[in-house]
Protein backbone atom coordinates (compact mmCIF):
# COMPACT_ATOMS: atom_id res chain seq x y z
CA UNK A 1 0.00 0.00 0.00
CA UNK A 2 1.61 3.26 -1.12
CA UNK A 3 1.78 6.60 0.68
CA UNK A 4 1.89 9.85 -1.28
CA UNK A 5 2.77 12.97 0.65
CA UNK A 6 5.07 15.92 1.20
CA UNK A 7 8.79 15.11 0.85
CA UNK A 8 11.53 17.26 2.30
CA UNK A 9 14.50 18.19 0.12
CA UNK A 10 17.45 16.57 1.85
CA UNK A 11 19.81 19.22 0.43
CA UNK A 12 17.76 22.08 1.86
CA UNK A 13 19.63 24.12 4.46
CA UNK A 14 18.28 24.06 7.99
CA UNK A 15 18.10 27.41 9.75
CA UNK A 16 18.58 28.04 13.44
CA UNK A 17 16.24 30.30 15.39
CA UNK A 18 18.89 33.05 15.55
CA UNK A 19 19.33 32.88 11.76
CA UNK A 20 15.58 33.15 11.23
CA UNK A 21 15.37 36.15 13.56
CA UNK A 22 18.27 37.85 11.74
CA UNK A 23 16.60 37.30 8.36
CA UNK A 24 13.29 38.61 9.69
CA UNK A 25 14.90 41.77 11.08
CA UNK A 26 16.49 42.36 7.69
CA UNK A 27 13.63 41.41 5.36
CA UNK A 28 10.28 41.79 7.14
CA UNK A 29 8.09 44.33 5.35
CA UNK A 30 6.18 45.49 8.44
CA UNK A 31 9.46 46.24 10.19
CA UNK A 32 10.67 48.17 7.14
CA UNK A 33 7.49 50.25 7.30
CA UNK A 34 8.16 51.00 10.98
CA UNK A 35 11.71 52.00 10.04
CA UNK A 36 10.40 54.38 7.37
CA UNK A 37 8.02 55.96 9.90
CA UNK A 38 10.92 56.46 12.29
CA UNK A 39 12.97 58.07 9.51
CA UNK A 40 10.07 60.39 8.65
CA UNK A 41 9.83 61.45 12.29
CA UNK A 42 13.58 62.13 12.26
CA UNK A 43 13.27 64.36 9.18
CA UNK A 44 10.33 66.22 10.73
CA UNK A 45 12.37 66.85 13.86
CA UNK A 46 15.33 68.13 11.85
CA UNK A 47 13.06 70.45 9.88
CA UNK A 48 11.41 71.84 13.01
CA UNK A 49 14.85 72.73 14.38
CA UNK A 50 15.80 74.32 11.06
CA UNK A 51 12.67 76.47 11.22
CA UNK A 52 14.32 78.39 14.09
CA UNK A 53 16.97 79.67 11.65
CA UNK A 54 16.51 82.79 9.49
CA UNK A 55 15.14 82.45 5.98
CA UNK A 56 17.44 83.75 3.23
CA UNK A 57 16.29 83.92 -0.40
CA UNK A 58 17.77 85.25 -3.60
CA UNK A 59 16.04 86.15 -6.84
CA UNK A 60 17.11 86.89 -10.40
CA UNK A 61 15.21 87.44 -13.62
CA UNK A 62 16.07 88.46 -17.17
CA UNK A 63 13.55 89.17 -19.92
CA UNK A 64 12.60 91.07 -23.03
CA UNK A 65 9.51 93.29 -23.28
CA UNK A 66 8.17 94.68 -26.58
CA UNK A 67 5.55 97.44 -26.76
CA UNK A 68 4.32 99.91 -24.23
CA UNK A 69 5.85 99.35 -20.84
CA UNK A 70 7.50 101.11 -17.91
CA UNK A 71 11.23 101.60 -18.00
CA UNK A 72 12.49 100.12 -14.69
CA UNK A 73 15.38 102.62 -14.81
CA UNK A 74 13.39 105.86 -15.21
CA UNK A 75 9.86 104.68 -14.40
CA UNK A 76 8.72 106.43 -17.60
CA UNK A 77 6.32 104.93 -20.12
CA UNK A 78 8.13 103.76 -23.25
CA UNK A 79 7.08 102.02 -26.43
CA UNK A 80 10.07 100.02 -27.60
CA UNK A 81 11.77 96.69 -27.18
CA UNK A 82 13.27 96.55 -23.71
CA UNK A 83 15.65 94.09 -22.11
CA UNK A 84 15.31 94.12 -18.33
CA UNK A 85 16.83 92.34 -15.38
CA UNK A 86 16.26 92.36 -11.61
CA UNK A 87 18.06 90.66 -8.76
CA UNK A 88 17.87 90.76 -5.01
CA UNK A 89 18.62 89.07 -1.71
CA UNK A 90 16.20 89.00 1.24
CA UNK A 91 16.37 87.74 4.81
CA UNK A 92 13.55 87.12 7.23
CA UNK A 93 13.71 85.87 10.82
CA UNK A 94 11.02 85.31 13.42
CA UNK A 95 11.93 86.84 16.77
CA UNK A 96 8.87 85.85 18.78
CA UNK A 97 5.67 83.94 18.03
CA UNK A 98 4.55 82.60 21.37
CA UNK A 99 7.32 79.95 21.34
CA UNK A 100 5.49 78.14 18.54
CA UNK A 101 8.67 77.16 16.69
CA UNK A 102 10.44 76.11 19.87
CA UNK A 103 7.52 74.02 21.10
CA UNK A 104 7.10 72.49 17.64
CA UNK A 105 10.75 71.41 17.72
CA UNK A 106 10.26 69.87 21.18
CA UNK A 107 7.06 68.14 20.04
CA UNK A 108 8.78 66.64 17.00
CA UNK A 109 11.68 65.55 19.17
CA UNK A 110 9.27 63.62 21.39
CA UNK A 111 7.51 62.15 18.33
CA UNK A 112 10.88 61.11 16.94
CA UNK A 113 11.78 59.27 20.16
CA UNK A 114 8.33 57.68 20.23
CA UNK A 115 8.73 56.48 16.63
CA UNK A 116 12.11 54.97 17.44
CA UNK A 117 10.57 53.14 20.41
CA UNK A 118 7.69 51.99 18.22
CA UNK A 119 10.24 50.61 15.81
CA UNK A 120 11.86 48.80 18.74
CA UNK A 121 8.43 47.49 19.76
CA UNK A 122 7.89 46.27 16.19
CA UNK A 123 11.22 44.45 16.42
CA UNK A 124 10.17 42.86 19.69
CA UNK A 125 6.85 41.78 18.17
CA UNK A 126 8.62 40.36 15.14
CA UNK A 127 11.13 38.40 17.24
CA UNK A 128 8.27 36.96 19.28
CA UNK A 129 6.26 36.01 16.18
CA UNK A 130 9.28 34.40 14.53
CA UNK A 131 10.02 32.46 17.72
CA UNK A 132 6.42 31.26 17.98
CA UNK A 133 6.34 30.33 14.29
CA UNK A 134 9.66 28.52 14.69
CA UNK A 135 8.30 26.54 17.67
CA UNK A 136 5.17 25.75 15.67
CA UNK A 137 7.33 24.25 12.95
CA UNK A 138 9.15 22.14 15.57
CA UNK A 139 5.81 21.09 17.03
CA UNK A 140 4.50 20.11 13.61
CA UNK A 141 7.69 18.14 12.94
CA UNK A 142 7.37 16.30 16.25
CA UNK A 143 3.73 15.42 15.52
CA UNK A 144 4.70 14.27 12.01
CA UNK A 145 7.38 12.01 13.45
CA UNK A 146 4.85 10.50 15.84
CA UNK A 147 2.31 9.86 13.07
CA UNK A 148 5.03 8.23 10.96
CA UNK A 149 6.00 6.04 13.89
CA UNK A 150 2.35 5.10 14.32
CA UNK A 151 2.19 4.12 10.64
CA UNK A 152 5.35 2.04 10.87
CA UNK A 153 4.03 0.22 13.93
CA UNK A 154 0.80 -0.55 12.09
CA UNK A 155 2.75 -1.82 9.09
CA UNK A 156 4.72 -4.15 11.33
CA UNK A 157 1.46 -5.48 12.71
CA UNK A 158 0.21 -5.90 9.14
CA UNK A 159 3.10 -8.25 8.37
CA UNK A 160 2.16 -10.41 11.35
CA UNK A 161 -1.52 -10.48 10.44
CA UNK A 162 -0.70 -11.18 6.80
CA UNK A 163 1.13 -14.34 7.83
CA UNK A 164 -1.94 -15.39 9.81
CA UNK A 165 -4.14 -14.51 6.86
CA UNK A 166 -2.00 -16.41 4.34
CA UNK A 167 -1.91 -19.44 6.63
CA UNK A 168 -5.67 -19.17 7.11
CA UNK A 169 -5.25 -18.91 10.87
CA UNK A 170 -6.68 -16.32 13.18
CA UNK A 171 -9.58 -14.02 12.40
CA UNK A 172 -9.58 -12.87 8.74
CA UNK A 173 -11.39 -9.68 9.78
CA UNK A 174 -8.35 -8.65 11.79
CA UNK A 175 -6.30 -8.46 8.59
CA UNK A 176 -8.93 -6.25 6.95
CA UNK A 177 -9.10 -4.05 10.06
CA UNK A 178 -5.33 -3.59 9.96
CA UNK A 179 -5.55 -2.47 6.32
CA UNK A 180 -8.19 0.07 7.34
CA UNK A 181 -6.01 1.24 10.23
CA UNK A 182 -3.08 1.76 7.85
CA UNK A 183 -5.27 3.93 5.63
CA UNK A 184 -6.25 5.95 8.70
CA UNK A 185 -2.61 6.31 9.79
CA UNK A 186 -1.58 7.37 6.29
CA UNK A 187 -4.25 10.07 6.37
CA UNK A 188 -2.86 11.26 9.70
CA UNK A 189 0.62 11.45 8.16
CA UNK A 190 -0.68 13.45 5.21
CA UNK A 191 -2.50 15.85 7.53
CA UNK A 192 0.62 16.23 9.66
CA UNK A 193 2.74 16.90 6.57
CA UNK A 194 0.24 19.55 5.45
CA UNK A 195 0.33 21.19 8.90
CA UNK A 196 4.12 21.17 8.83
CA UNK A 197 4.21 22.73 5.39
CA UNK A 198 1.76 25.43 6.46
CA UNK A 199 3.86 26.15 9.55
CA UNK A 200 6.97 26.49 7.40
CA UNK A 201 5.19 28.83 5.00
CA UNK A 202 3.96 30.96 7.91
CA UNK A 203 7.54 31.26 9.14
CA UNK A 204 8.76 32.08 5.62
CA UNK A 205 6.19 34.89 5.34
CA UNK A 206 7.59 36.52 8.47
CA UNK A 207 11.06 36.30 6.92
CA UNK A 208 9.72 37.66 3.61
CA UNK A 209 10.95 34.57 1.76
CA UNK A 210 9.16 33.13 -1.30
CA UNK A 211 9.38 29.48 -0.22
CA UNK A 212 9.08 27.47 2.97
CA UNK A 213 12.25 26.75 4.90
CA UNK A 214 13.63 23.94 7.05
CA UNK A 215 14.46 24.57 10.70
CA UNK A 216 17.15 23.05 12.86
CA UNK A 217 15.48 21.25 15.75
CA UNK A 218 18.79 20.97 17.60
CA UNK A 219 19.47 24.71 17.51
CA UNK A 220 16.97 25.61 20.22
CA UNK A 221 17.10 24.45 23.80
CA UNK A 222 13.65 23.36 24.89
CA UNK A 223 13.82 23.44 28.66
CA UNK A 224 10.65 22.26 30.34
CA UNK A 225 10.53 23.71 33.83
CA UNK A 226 7.71 25.13 35.87
CA UNK A 227 7.52 28.90 35.37
CA UNK A 228 8.61 30.67 38.54
CA UNK A 229 7.08 34.15 38.11
CA UNK A 230 3.51 35.13 38.85
CA UNK A 231 1.35 37.10 36.39
CA UNK A 232 1.78 40.28 38.48
CA UNK A 233 5.56 39.89 38.48
CA UNK A 234 5.58 39.49 34.71
CA UNK A 235 3.38 42.59 34.33
CA UNK A 236 5.65 44.68 36.58
CA UNK A 237 8.65 43.72 34.44
CA UNK A 238 6.65 44.54 31.30
CA UNK A 239 6.03 48.06 32.61
CA UNK A 240 9.79 48.58 32.84
CA UNK A 241 10.91 46.86 29.65
CA UNK A 242 8.25 46.99 26.93
CA UNK A 243 8.96 49.71 24.37
CA UNK A 244 5.25 50.17 23.62
CA UNK A 245 4.64 51.64 27.10
CA UNK A 246 7.49 54.11 26.74
CA UNK A 247 6.36 55.07 23.25
CA UNK A 248 2.81 55.79 24.43
CA UNK A 249 4.13 57.91 27.30
CA UNK A 250 6.17 59.97 24.85
CA UNK A 251 3.11 60.39 22.62
CA UNK A 252 1.30 61.93 25.59
CA UNK A 253 4.14 64.40 26.17
CA UNK A 254 4.19 65.24 22.45
CA UNK A 255 0.43 65.85 22.48
CA UNK A 256 0.86 68.24 25.43
CA UNK A 257 3.44 70.18 23.42
CA UNK A 258 0.87 70.32 20.65
CA UNK A 259 -1.41 72.23 23.00
CA UNK A 260 1.36 74.77 23.60
CA UNK A 261 1.89 75.11 19.85
CA UNK A 262 -1.82 75.75 19.32
CA UNK A 263 -1.91 78.37 22.12
CA UNK A 264 0.79 80.36 20.33
CA UNK A 265 -1.86 81.36 17.77
CA UNK A 266 -3.21 83.80 20.39
CA UNK A 267 0.07 85.74 20.66
CA UNK A 268 1.54 88.37 18.29
CA UNK A 269 4.31 87.36 15.92
CA UNK A 270 7.35 89.62 15.65
CA UNK A 271 9.88 89.25 12.87
CA UNK A 272 12.71 91.26 11.31
CA UNK A 273 13.41 91.48 7.62
CA UNK A 274 15.96 92.97 5.30
CA UNK A 275 16.84 92.97 1.65
CA UNK A 276 19.06 94.32 -1.08
CA UNK A 277 17.86 94.79 -4.68
CA UNK A 278 19.06 96.19 -8.01
CA UNK A 279 17.93 96.26 -11.64
CA UNK A 280 19.00 96.74 -15.26
CA UNK A 281 17.28 98.28 -18.30
CA UNK A 282 18.53 98.30 -21.88
CA UNK A 283 16.79 101.68 -22.33
CA UNK A 284 18.96 103.36 -19.75
CA UNK A 285 21.43 105.84 -21.29
CA UNK A 286 24.11 108.25 -20.11
CA UNK A 287 24.37 111.64 -21.94
CA UNK A 288 27.92 113.01 -22.17
CA UNK A 289 28.75 116.64 -23.07
CA UNK A 290 30.59 117.05 -26.43
CA UNK A 291 30.96 120.84 -26.41
CA UNK A 292 28.81 123.89 -27.32
CA UNK A 293 27.37 125.44 -30.47
CA UNK A 294 25.48 128.60 -31.51
CA UNK A 295 21.96 127.89 -32.67
CA UNK A 296 18.94 129.99 -33.46
CA UNK A 297 16.20 130.10 -30.93
CA UNK A 298 13.46 130.62 -33.51
CA UNK A 299 12.73 134.08 -32.23
CA UNK A 300 13.45 137.38 -34.09
CA UNK A 301 14.06 141.01 -33.27
CA UNK A 302 13.40 143.87 -35.68
CA UNK A 303 16.21 146.34 -36.15
CA UNK A 304 15.77 149.17 -38.68
CA UNK A 305 12.99 147.22 -40.27
CA UNK A 306 15.03 144.02 -40.54
CA UNK A 307 14.04 140.80 -38.69
CA UNK A 308 17.15 139.44 -37.09
CA UNK A 309 17.22 135.88 -35.61
CA UNK A 310 18.10 135.52 -31.97
CA UNK A 311 21.07 133.22 -31.44
CA UNK A 312 22.00 131.25 -28.29
CA UNK A 313 24.76 128.99 -27.12
CA UNK A 314 23.77 125.42 -26.19
CA UNK A 315 25.59 122.43 -24.81
CA UNK A 316 25.75 119.40 -27.07
CA UNK A 317 25.33 115.83 -25.64
CA UNK A 318 26.05 112.34 -26.96
CA UNK A 319 24.00 109.33 -25.69
CA UNK A 320 25.95 106.35 -24.30
CA UNK A 321 24.43 103.04 -23.12
CA UNK A 322 25.06 102.23 -19.45
CA UNK A 323 26.68 98.83 -18.96
CA UNK A 324 25.01 95.93 -17.18
CA UNK A 325 27.44 95.85 -14.26
CA UNK A 326 27.38 99.64 -13.88
CA UNK A 327 23.59 99.66 -13.68
CA UNK A 328 23.62 96.93 -11.04
CA UNK A 329 26.06 98.98 -8.98
CA UNK A 330 24.22 102.26 -9.51
CA UNK A 331 20.73 100.91 -8.80
CA UNK A 332 21.45 99.17 -5.51
CA UNK A 333 18.88 99.72 -2.78
CA UNK A 334 18.44 98.19 0.66
CA UNK A 335 15.58 97.75 3.07
CA UNK A 336 15.38 96.69 6.74
CA UNK A 337 12.43 96.60 9.06
CA UNK A 338 10.40 94.97 11.79
CA UNK A 339 7.03 93.28 11.19
CA UNK A 340 4.42 92.67 13.85
CA UNK A 341 1.41 90.45 13.16
CA UNK A 342 -1.28 90.73 15.85
CA UNK A 343 -4.10 88.14 15.74
CA UNK A 344 -7.37 89.94 16.37
CA UNK A 345 -9.99 87.53 15.07
CA UNK A 346 -9.63 84.36 13.00
CA UNK A 347 -13.06 82.77 13.19
CA UNK A 348 -12.25 81.06 16.52
CA UNK A 349 -9.71 78.95 14.64
CA UNK A 350 -7.08 79.32 17.36
CA UNK A 351 -9.53 78.46 20.13
CA UNK A 352 -10.79 75.37 18.31
CA UNK A 353 -7.25 74.22 17.48
CA UNK A 354 -6.36 74.37 21.18
CA UNK A 355 -9.50 72.37 22.00
CA UNK A 356 -8.59 69.73 19.39
CA UNK A 357 -5.04 69.42 20.74
CA UNK A 358 -6.39 68.94 24.26
CA UNK A 359 -8.62 66.15 22.93
CA UNK A 360 -5.54 64.52 21.39
CA UNK A 361 -3.89 64.61 24.80
CA UNK A 362 -6.89 62.81 26.31
CA UNK A 363 -6.85 60.28 23.46
CA UNK A 364 -3.15 59.61 24.08
CA UNK A 365 -3.81 59.08 27.79
CA UNK A 366 -6.68 56.71 27.00
CA UNK A 367 -4.46 54.81 24.55
CA UNK A 368 -1.84 54.32 27.28
CA UNK A 369 -4.49 53.16 29.74
CA UNK A 370 -5.90 50.79 27.13
CA UNK A 371 -2.42 49.40 26.47
CA UNK A 372 -1.89 48.84 30.21
CA UNK A 373 -5.23 47.06 30.53
CA UNK A 374 -4.85 44.96 27.37
CA UNK A 375 -1.35 43.78 28.24
CA UNK A 376 -2.22 43.10 31.87
CA UNK A 377 -5.22 41.00 30.82
CA UNK A 378 -3.18 39.24 28.13
CA UNK A 379 -0.46 38.37 30.64
CA UNK A 380 -3.03 37.07 33.13
CA UNK A 381 -4.70 34.91 30.45
CA UNK A 382 -1.43 33.54 29.06
CA UNK A 383 -0.13 32.82 32.57
CA UNK A 384 -3.35 31.00 33.51
CA UNK A 385 -3.28 28.97 30.28
CA UNK A 386 0.40 28.18 30.81
CA UNK A 387 -0.23 26.74 34.27
CA UNK A 388 -3.19 24.75 32.97
CA UNK A 389 -1.08 23.38 30.11
CA UNK A 390 1.73 22.49 32.52
CA UNK A 391 -0.64 20.50 34.72
CA UNK A 392 -2.12 18.85 31.63
CA UNK A 393 1.40 17.93 30.50
CA UNK A 394 2.13 16.21 33.82
CA UNK A 395 -1.18 14.36 33.56
CA UNK A 396 -0.48 13.33 29.97
CA UNK A 397 2.93 11.97 30.97
CA UNK A 398 1.20 9.60 33.36
CA UNK A 399 -1.36 8.78 30.68
CA UNK A 400 1.35 7.88 28.16
CA UNK A 401 3.04 5.62 30.70
CA UNK A 402 -0.24 3.86 31.45
CA UNK A 403 -1.17 3.47 27.78
CA UNK A 404 2.31 2.15 26.96
CA UNK A 405 1.85 -0.66 29.44
CA UNK A 406 -1.70 -1.32 28.21
CA UNK A 407 -0.53 -1.38 24.60
CA UNK A 408 2.39 -3.70 25.43
CA UNK A 409 0.04 -6.20 27.05
CA UNK A 410 -2.64 -6.02 24.36
CA UNK A 411 -0.06 -6.34 21.58
CA UNK A 412 1.30 -9.56 23.10
CA UNK A 413 -2.22 -10.91 23.65
CA UNK A 414 -3.29 -9.97 20.12
CA UNK A 415 -0.22 -11.48 18.47
CA UNK A 416 -0.87 -14.70 20.38
CA UNK A 417 -4.52 -14.78 19.43
CA UNK A 418 -5.72 -14.30 22.99
CA UNK A 419 -7.23 -10.85 22.41
CA UNK A 420 -9.22 -9.43 19.51
CA UNK A 421 -8.25 -6.63 17.16
CA UNK A 422 -10.61 -4.13 18.75
CA UNK A 423 -8.78 -4.31 22.07
CA UNK A 424 -5.44 -4.05 20.31
CA UNK A 425 -6.27 -1.10 18.07
CA UNK A 426 -7.97 0.72 20.95
CA UNK A 427 -4.81 0.43 23.04
CA UNK A 428 -2.68 1.45 20.09
CA UNK A 429 -4.78 4.51 19.24
CA UNK A 430 -4.96 5.55 22.88
CA UNK A 431 -1.17 5.44 23.13
CA UNK A 432 -0.59 7.20 19.82
CA UNK A 433 -3.09 9.94 20.60
CA UNK A 434 -1.64 10.41 24.06
CA UNK A 435 1.85 10.83 22.57
CA UNK A 436 0.59 13.41 20.06
CA UNK A 437 -1.28 15.26 22.81
CA UNK A 438 1.82 15.18 24.99
CA UNK A 439 3.95 16.66 22.18
CA UNK A 440 1.36 19.34 21.45
CA UNK A 441 1.04 20.20 25.14
CA UNK A 442 4.80 20.53 25.51
CA UNK A 443 4.97 23.08 22.70
CA UNK A 444 1.83 24.86 23.90
CA UNK A 445 3.58 25.36 27.23
CA UNK A 446 6.80 26.55 25.59
CA UNK A 447 4.86 28.96 23.36
CA UNK A 448 3.22 30.55 26.37
CA UNK A 449 6.54 30.79 28.19
CA UNK A 450 7.97 32.64 25.18
CA UNK A 451 5.02 35.03 25.20
CA UNK A 452 5.54 35.80 28.89
CA UNK A 453 9.26 36.29 28.30
CA UNK A 454 8.36 38.70 25.51
CA UNK A 455 6.28 40.78 27.91
CA UNK A 456 9.25 40.81 30.30
CA UNK A 457 11.39 42.25 27.51
CA UNK A 458 13.34 39.00 27.00
CA UNK A 459 13.13 38.71 23.21
CA UNK A 460 16.54 37.12 22.64
TrEMBL record:
InterPro entries in alphabetical order: OMP_efflux, TolC-like
Task: Give the keywords, sorted.
Answer: Cell outer membrane, Membrane, Transmembrane, Transmembrane beta strand, Transport
Where is this gene product found?
Answer: Cell outer membrane
Per the record, the major location class is membrane
Residues crossing the lipid bilayer are none
Q: Could you tell me which PANTHER family the record lists for this protein?
A: OUTER MEMBRANE PROTEIN TOLC
Q: Which family does it belong to?
A: Belongs to the outer membrane factor (OMF) (TC 1.B.17) family.
Name assigned to this protein: TolC family protein
Task: Please tell me the species this chain comes from.
Answer: Winogradskyella echinorum
Amino acid sequence: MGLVGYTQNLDQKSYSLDECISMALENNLDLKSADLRANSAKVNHQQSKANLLPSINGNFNLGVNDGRSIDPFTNDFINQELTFSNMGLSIDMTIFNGFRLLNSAKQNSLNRKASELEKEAAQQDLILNVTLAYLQVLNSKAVLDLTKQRLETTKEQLKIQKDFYDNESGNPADYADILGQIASDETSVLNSESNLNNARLALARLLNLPDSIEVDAESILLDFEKYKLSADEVYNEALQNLATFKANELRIEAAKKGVSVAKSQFTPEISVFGGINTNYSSAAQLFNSTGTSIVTTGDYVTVDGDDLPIMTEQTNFEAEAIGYKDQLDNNLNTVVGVAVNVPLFNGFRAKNNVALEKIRVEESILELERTHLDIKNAIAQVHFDMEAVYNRYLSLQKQVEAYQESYRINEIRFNNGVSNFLNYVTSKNNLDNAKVNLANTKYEYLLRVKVLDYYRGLTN
